[in-house]
Amino acid sequence: MTQSTDIDPQDASTPDRYAPRTGPLGLSRRTRARLTDLAIDAFLFAFGLLMILPLVFLVSNAFKTPQEMVAWPPRIIPEDPTLENFRSVLGDTPLLLWIWNSFSFAVLSMIAIVATSAIAGYVLAKFPFRSLHLLFLVILATAIVPFEVYMIPLYFQAQALGILNSIWGLLLGYLVMSFGIFLIRQNVMHAIPDELLEAARIDGAGEMWIFVFIVLPLLRGALGALAVLAFFQAWTSFAWPIIVATTRDAYTIEVGLALFQTGFTVDLGRLSAASAAVLVPSVTLFVILRRNFVQGVASTGMKE
Amino acid sequence: MLRWKRWRFAMLAILPTLAIFAWVRMYPIVETLRLSLHQWDILSKNKPFIGLQNFRELFQDQLFLEALINTSAIAFGVLFITIPTALVISALIYHRTRSRFAGFYETTVFIPHIVSLVPAAMAWKWIFDANLGPLNGLLQSVGLPAQPWLFDPVLSVIAIIILCSWQALGYAVLIYLVGFKNLPVSLFEAAKLDGAGGIARFWYISVPMLKPITLYVSVVTLISAFNVYAQAFVLASDSQGAPGRQVRVLVLDMLENAFRNYRIGYAAAEAVILLAIVLLLTLVQFGLLREKGRR
Which domains does chain B have, with CATH numbers? Predict the structure, then answer.
């Protein structure tokens, strides 16, 4: 459903009372529309480049020598590219360990959120019991409470379990996602007809069998979107990891970088190298998974 | 019999999720509310109930008030930059949906929203850097004086607003694009036949019809900006490690009270105020939506 910008043929044959056939510059309407579109394209192109320019420079700075770093104007392609920054960062910090911590935390969180959301979303959508409806309202109500509000008591729960400074401590905050449950519930309601489930029951299928072999395959798209969303949510988390992980070996990449940059002997070249090492894989992953991700985020706007 | 069987399955299936949910969501939320009415300094064993004493103290606490003002300034600053920009950019992207570059436009605007906070903030730190940052270089090359972006109390808040808006824009554009796609095409066709130009159609049709979306995006943007923390944390220190000016925001103040001053009850009271702000914003959103529906 695109908005037509060209003049359709029947429009051209009937005289238009309001819009003159030619514009102020003596150009036909069609030419003017073309020029407008071209100008819009140029503007959007420039705007898009401007949006990613800070990140482009970050990556380029990672390959610059200290001398080139202070040069004005800054160059996008380094004149004398060097890998020294990367070598030095990898020698100074357990960067790979931090990336591994973040990655395993994000993957575990993704699995937990997809599993809990899938089953809870299905049950809440297709089993019309009053107690479940009440439960759904509670989940919906807690969805708007920001994580920052309740993370202090949660910290003491992690402490009591003795899982501070570990992946499990990080995971504690990211086991469920209220929005995920909501998203799957909406999808089940729209995508899975009651008749299908009833037919399976009449054929003697057990409830568990129905869930695994009928419901889950039909939810592939929604679960994919949720998985990507959950992964990035954990991967980019900051406030929770910074209070739970306080030893150097337990840092996630976000926390590690944030604390590394407060060091007194750290220069921008090495900071950029460390940042680029994190940025490039996640942006690549995003570009590959863009459709899933956009679908997931766009559906957040659909909640009424 | 069948009904009972289905009920049993539903309960058994939801039980694990429910248990986790109660344990890591409901309990800590209730605990935050409870702790906010108590005095608990970690070291002391007893936690006396002190009613609203924490809240009374908070509103005389200069640091907290500073954090509240900074955070509100950041949140509304981000709102006033993001919403109009997102509306215009998404209208233009929607207008050029058929363009070969539509995917490029969407992706580039959205990338800042998904990149990790710390590396992204690092990029901006270099841009704002007083000595070698390109922003000051740019200012000087057009004859303006260089500014201490990350040291001046007002400029550092502005720097955070710019960084947060850059990140929030992608989300707003994405939601607006969904909104544009759901607008009735016939309305635009009719307006076009009546001779309404592109700008008139945008201003008199798109903007009013997208009002519910604007409301939703505004509230989401405000809420996430009220929870700003990583951006302030990273921008606060200079590139050479010299401490820059820490912009005090609510989450930072709360964590400092909890883990540096060991005043858990006091920090919980701050969390409750954060929650109250979020609830208020949500209620305003619902209120405005309902008002619109009645008309």
Answer: 1-35 (no CATH), 50-294 (1.10.3720.10)
